[in-house]
Amino acid sequence: MFKKLSTAACLSLLAAGCADLEPPAYALPYAPDIRDRHPIVLKNELTTLDVYPTQISGLDARQRVDLRDFARAYIPAGKTSLVVSSPYKGQAADNAAVDRFANLIVKDLVTAGVPRSAIEVRKYQSLDFDRVEPVKLAYVQLEAGVPHACGDWPDDLGAGSLINGMENLTPANFGCAHQQNLAAQMANPMDAIRPARETAPDSTQRVLMLRRFVSGQPTATQSAGSGTEDSTTSTSVPN
């Protein structure tokens, strides 16, 4: 009797395994969850800035602001050296002027806080001797984003998409812009793969609210300009 039961159980398991291998009636060519379909990943992104020689005295006010902002962005996020590439001209006088301009840029970056050891000075071949060409600044930083471009619509979403309409399925591009915009708003790209550590509570504010609570004073947050209390944040103790 036991042998017969064991045989029946084995046959049932085999049948169940075969049932799992049967393909569904309709399978999506992409993941149904937008987090799997358009995942937020980390990638290396090249950040650049072109600085054109616009005046004989060197950098103008706008260029100094651009360099300061570029340096502030590089200091916490740069993964590589900050490369300063100046065009190589055919005339010695032109090369000397370009080198002076590039040196001013390097000096301004150092003043903004970039270590001189992190700046790499290079040359690139000028394409036209008569054209004004910039000094190119570049570095690689870590950024969060989707691993592909949005806007891919492989299926017809009109009247010809009968199966998608009957199954009430989302299109392939659904959720891509949402994921990309969410990644673009992250100040720290590492937040895309792990949560940030919780900060310590404000002990001063906590003690202040506790003293108000014990003394019977209102502890609710008041909205600015209205004089009304926001009951969603805290409650008041009646006198």
Taken together, the total number of domains comes to 1
Determine the number of helices (DSSP H or I, runs of at least 4 residues): 7
Our Rg estimate from Cα atoms comes to 31 Å
Structural class: alpha+beta
So, CATH architecture? 2-Layer Sandwich
First-residue to last-residue Cα separation: 79 Å
Order of strands, main sheet, comes to 1-4-2-3
Helix content: 25-40%
Largest sheet features: 4 strands, mixed
CATH class: Alpha Beta
Q: Name the average pLDDT.
A: 80
At the fourth level of CATH, the homologous superfamily is OmpA-like domain
**DSSP strand count:** 6
User: What's the assembly state of these chains?
Assistant: single chain
Low-confidence stretches: 228-239
The geometry reads as flat
Give the ordered list of helices and strands: HHEHEHEEHHHEE
Could you say what the CATH topology is called?
60s Ribosomal Protein L30, Chain: A
Q: How much strand content do the residues show?
A: 15-25%
Task: Please write out the topology.
Elements: H1 2-20, H2 34-37, E1 41-51, H3 61-77, E2 82-88, H4 92-111, E3 119-125, E4 135-145, H5 162-167, H6 176-184, H7 203-215, E5 221-222, E6 229-230
Parallel strand pairs: 2-3
Antiparallel strand pairs: 1-4, 2-4, 5-6
Descriptive account of the structure:
This protein has 239 residues and is α+β, with helices and mostly antiparallel strands. The protein has a single domain, classed as OmpA-like domain (60s Ribosomal Protein L30, Chain: A). Helix content is 37%, strand content 17%. It contains seven helices and six strands. A four-stranded mixed beta sheet has the order 1-4-2-3. Strands 5-6 form a two-stranded antiparallel sheet. The termini are far apart. The C terminus is likely disordered.
